[in-house]
């Protein structure tokens, strides 16, 4: 048999039927659901008189609209509240394997909640009406975001109409330097391939630097695959993957566990498997990253400067940079370390797991946020992450430094709730998108790792966490 | 789903690369639990000078005269001309809903983000990929000539300019068939229920933990 990539294996084992043009019905094992992209899908089912095909595939939570403070007061915005209550009602009517509603202790960002519950398993196909579903590829699962029509389609049929992507291997060999994290690797890769570099591909991340990452680091990396244009990111299964999954609430037990593990161990790309494209980076070259523009590919290293559009020949690119600098309120050639910030956001499905919070806390222990920084929000990814952090005393470290310790949710990653930037405010953020208006209309977002965000909060401007 | 066969439509050129779905429809409008009514808030932050929130009367909001969609010559446009990586970012289907609700039926660009591209087909909106040079040519022609229209023929897979120049585009047979006939994809899939059940039987035997 010819050598197969991990993607080939995951794909072919889920094909139900295939048409002559390569369109397949792909079987979906796990369907994660949140309040923003599901109401129209449930309504579609209702209107057509259809029922979910397999309710036990559905795991749901409310995360985008939920507030991160004053939970006793409920959700104040009536439109947000209606959306969350609509999910409550839909789950009640249609059912689910599990639902973690607003205020439940298992509630959290859908991409943090799924893995920590063991609802995401190696070898699964995982979909969610959310582009960052790529996160779950960290477990050797084929995971990608879908639109609401597809949410309805998966609910009704347990399948997705899909076509196979091309495959790309992004190989990072060597050892990452001290203070360089999975987030920096992700941003460095996007800086290299561009935000459309992975369009049409499923990316597998490989190489010794990726194998050395923790599972949480791999989730951060796969989470950002979509920012490089790839609907899905993948990392091969190894012992770390299996250890992470073991004992979680929805992980297989007993005899099933042994069977599952035997299968999961095959979820690697075979020796000699061919990829349509290969990109290589040396881990030792990767420095802490900071974005300066309005797209994740507009990124440089902490020692870098804001680029000068006058130096760029391609007119579409040049105009893009000019528009980004105007929006960001930045001058060409400004050293990144001289950019002062107004707010800091530590959270989102990219960087709100326990390791992220530990990394941020380690940087600030015993220090105070800078006077020019108006607000530092630390938003854990889920209720379980929050409880763990509090058990370790991290919340005390944050509050002692003048940071705010909040309830879990998406929060200022996309500012659908009350947490947002005011026009012109500049933010060091551990989230994944620095688009215009993403964190609030007119808000200016710089993407960084948790350690870099924490260091910036203390310094009042960006600073190299390695010399901090 | 709405069928798409042919269209002769006014072209609106949006000369920006990497237009993301946050720009196409900002998040505050995602709180709606409906599928329609997003058109007035398409490109909200670029189109209006004030901050938009759900429930506002959009007809009295101050328009940004510099945004191309507001130029009187592009009123009623049905074909959006765009640059590379159109529709990147969030998977929100509200983006094609907003474009369709506004009146667009076709988006032409050198490249699209995958999820957005896929979402378009589910809503009778046809995304067409043409080579960058061709898109560039269409940009120049549409800016030069007021009232510039393109003819799109899905069955023939062609885009034709007013001067009669034709460009071919690709589409998978499956998508073309569904779009031409306005088919309900869920119904089509459910017609294969026995195959899905057979797959699940196999799954039960081979990977029992997945159905537990
Ligand atoms: S944290 Fe941000 S990117 Fe992640 S699911 Fe929530 S809104 Fe989307």
Description:
Chain B: Catalyzes the isomerization between 2-isopropylmalate and 3-isopropylmalate, via the formation of 2-isopropylmaleate. The complex is a heterodimer of chains A (468) and B (212). Helix content of chain A is 31%, strand content 17%. With 468 residues, chain A is an alpha/beta fold. In chain A, the strands form 5 sheets. Chain A has a 5-stranded parallel beta sheet with strand order 5-4-3-6-7, with helices on both faces. In chain A, strands 17-16-15-18-19 form a 5-stranded parallel beta sheet. In chain A, helix 3 links the parallel strand 4 and strand 5. In chain A, helix 2 crosses helix 5 and helix 12 packs parallel to helix 15. The N and C termini of chain A lie far apart (53 Å). Chain B has 8 helices and 7 strands. With 212 residues, chain B is of the alpha/beta class. Chain B has a domain of 119 residues: Alpha-Beta Barrel (Aconitase, domain 4). In chain B, 32% of the residues lie in helices and 14% in strands. The model of chain B has no long low-confidence stretch (mean pLDDT 96). The chains are: A alpha/beta (468), B alpha/beta (212). At the A-B interface, helix 2, helix 3, helix 5, helix 10 and helix 11 of A face helix 4, helix 6, helix 7 and helix 8 of B. Iron/sulfur cluster (SF4) binds next to helix 4 of chain A.
List its salient traits.
heterodimer, A: 468 residues, alpha/beta, Aconitase, domain 3, five-stranded parallel β-sheet, 15 helices, 19 strands, globular, B: 212 residues, Aconitase, domain 4, binds iron/sulfur cluster
Biggest chain contact: A-B, 79 and 59 residues
Bin the strand percentage of chain B: 5-15%
Structural class of chain B: alpha/beta
Q: State the helical fraction of chain B.
A: 25-40%
CATH architecture of the domain at 6-19 and 77-181 in chain B, please? Alpha-Beta Barrel
Radius of gyration computed on alpha carbons of chain A: 21 Å
CATH class of the domain at 6-19 and 77-181 in chain B: Alpha Beta
Count of helical stretches of chain B: 8
Q: What would the principal axes of the Cα set say about the shape of chain B?
A: globular
The largest sheet of chain A has its strands arranged as 5-4-3-6-7
Straight-line N-to-C gap of chain A: 53 Å
End-to-end separation of chain B in angstroms reads: 35 Å
Number of helices of chain A: 15
General shape of chain A = globular
Strand tally of chain A, please? 19
Unreliably modeled segments of chain A: none
Please write the string of helix (H) and strand (E) elements of chain B.
EHHEHEHEHEEEHHH
* Oligomer classification: heterodimer
- The parts of chain B where pLDDT drops under 50 for at least 5 residues are none
- Average pLDDT level of chain B: 96
